[in-house]
């Protein structure tokens, strides 16, 4: 990828982003208001790459694309894309975006790693708001590829399309929020699970270790390969419509117990059914189930010594 990317803010997230873009082939400049932070980020990025065991040559190639700079002007000079990762504070983010908007080349996209602040709170009203948006990663972004794209009120469609293209080329998986919502998507889903875990602990339903096990060995295994909607789609011969017909009322009843009082809307059911059928025909569900099962076994091989389905190689066992 022949792009120039500026990393503004060189903490944990910033240096991980630097790896993402440098690994993809971009020239990456790192800047932080703290003079030593950018150089320190380079050292820690090298350590992170060593942990991946990619070899000395690979590490040197990636690190050779990173450069610590001392001024914001130098970082943004000729940049195609900026990933800001400064403190999660409205005033701080507004201040740095005002500076970047005045300095960056006209074609340059300005993206924020913001994880909770609504984009309108610090991006609205900028002279070039059309090129600004939130690109919220999951930590660490060089290992977890999900990025939530959250447009500002006047973000241009071409900005969203170009950011999505660039991030995809960098090995990330961008998803688009059609409108901002508190916590964005990932944090809302995580909050729902974590809050229920804390409730179950308080009610002494199960131990914390067993609750973690429910996610690690149950839901988490499946969800690492597919989301809950595809899971439902593959768990009924007639696909997700069949699954909803059989279990939808039970889920909604349990949702009421969990505080989710709103019934499933017909348009939401229609939307998820159509979305699943657009990517997987009903007559291909069996093949997808087989793919799921093979890969679930492969996942278990990574995280436990003797996963189900693997025959022991001890003397006397069948090979």
Features:
51% helix, eight-stranded mixed sheet, disordered C terminus, alpha/beta, 319 residues
Question: What would your notes on this structure say?
Answer:
By secondary structure, this protein is of the alpha/beta class. The chain has 13 helices and eight strands. An eight-stranded mixed sheet has the order 3-2-1-4-5-6-7-8, with helices on both faces. A hairpin with an 8-residue loop joins strand 6 and strand 7. Helix 10 crosses helix 11 (239-257). The longest helix has 19 residues, at 239-257. It starts with a strand and ends in a 16-residue tail after the last helix. The model is unreliable at 311-319 (pLDDT under 50).
Biggest sheet, spatial arrangement of strands: 3-2-1-4-5-6-7-8
Shape: globular
Mean pLDDT: 91
What is the terminal-to-terminal distance?
47 Å
Helix content: 40-55%
Q: What does the largest sheet look like?
A: 8 strands, mixed
Poorly predicted ranges: 311-319
Strand percentage lies at 5-15%
Topology as a string of helices (H) and strands (E): EHEHHEHEHEHEEHEHHHHHH
- How would you classify the quaternary structure? single chain
Structural class per helix/strand content? alpha/beta
Number of strands: 8
Structure annotation, total helices: 13
User: Which value, in Å, is the CA radius of gyration?
Assistant: 23 Å
């Amino acid at each position: 990828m022949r792009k120039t990317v500026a990393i503004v803010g060189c903490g944990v997230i910033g240096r991980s982003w630097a790896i993402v873009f440098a690994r993809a082939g971009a020239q990456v400049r790192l800047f932080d208001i703290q003079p030593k932070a950018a150089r320190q980020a380079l050292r820690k990025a090298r350590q992170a790459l060593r942990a991946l065991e990619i070899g000395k040559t690979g590490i040197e190639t990636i690190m050779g694309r990173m450069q610590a700079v001392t001024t914001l002007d130098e970082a943004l000079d000729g940049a195609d894309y900026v990933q800001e990762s400064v403190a999660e504070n409205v005033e701080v983010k507004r201040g740095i975006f005002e500076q970047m908007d005045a300095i960056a080349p006209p074609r340059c996209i300005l993206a924020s790693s913001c994880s909770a602040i609504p984009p309108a709170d610090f991006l609205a009203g900028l002279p070039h708001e059309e090129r600004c948006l939130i690109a919220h990663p999951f930590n660490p972004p060089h290992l977890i590829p999900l990025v939530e794209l959250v447009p500002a009120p006047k973000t241009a469609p071409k900005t969203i399309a170009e950011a999505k293209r660039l991030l995809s080329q960098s090995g990330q998986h961008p998803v688009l929020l059609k409108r901002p919502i508190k916590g964005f998507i990932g944090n809302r889903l995580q909050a729902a699970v974590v809050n229920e875990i804390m409730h179950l602990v308080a009610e002494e339903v199960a131990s914390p270790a067993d609750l973690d096990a429910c996610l690690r060995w149950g839901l988490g295994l499946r969800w690492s390969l597919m989301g809950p909607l595809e899971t439902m789609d593959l768990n009924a011969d007639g696909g997700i419509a069949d699954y909803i017909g059989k279990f939808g009322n039970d889920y909604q009843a349990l949702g009421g117990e969990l505080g989710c009082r709103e019934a499933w809307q017909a348009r939401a059911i229609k939307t998820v059914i159509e979305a699943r059928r657009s990517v997987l025909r009903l007559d291909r569900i069996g093949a997808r189930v087989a793919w799921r099962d093979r890969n679930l076994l492969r996942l278990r091989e990574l995280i436990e010594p003797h996963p189900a389905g693997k025959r022991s190689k001890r003397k006397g066992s069948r090979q």
